[in-house]
């Protein structure tokens, strides 16, 4: 997972002409949180949401959908789009840290997980973070070129503190916008 995350982040940084080596090194050393989720079958799936609408607070998220049972949905142009599982594939999702670092060019999409009437679904999610020594803010290349930063710059500890102490009725990313 570390290799996949590092190489994805490197490509994403290169596409924006950012200091790709520095950014991928940060993900080489960072914290990776793994969450396994089990969604039991539900006789009334239309009345239940497995994981409610949110965007991830990671840099990027790598998701393994076990058993090819669909459930993940991404909000695209105001519509929920189901991500069809592909055998053995990893779903990569952008988290808030990449949104901030790219000064809003990459967006952390809202997504949710639905439940299935007949089948149990399991997913394994790896939330990939840069090293805790890295400041979380728009990449220095944006400020150098005179582009105004759209997000605050925080230490890793501040970022996590704000996330875990936030009010749930306020959008987390909006709190970090300037
Ligand atoms: O289980 C899934 O498909 C999504 C899980 C997820 O979005 C999360 O854990 O943040
Ligand atoms: Fe998520």
Automatic annotation (TrEMBL):
Pfam families xref list: 2OG-FeII_Oxy
InterPro entries: IPNS-like_FE2OG_OXY (IPR044861), IPNS-like_sf (IPR027443), Oxoglu/Fe-dep_dioxygenase_dom (IPR005123), Plant_2OG-oxidoreductases (IPR050295)
Domain Fe2OG dioxygenase: 30-130
Keywords carried by this UniProt record: Iron, Metal-binding
GO molecular function terms noted in the UniProt entry: metal ion binding
Protein name per its UniProtKB record: Fe2OG dioxygenase domain-containing protein
Annotated source species: Citrus sinensis (Sweet orange)
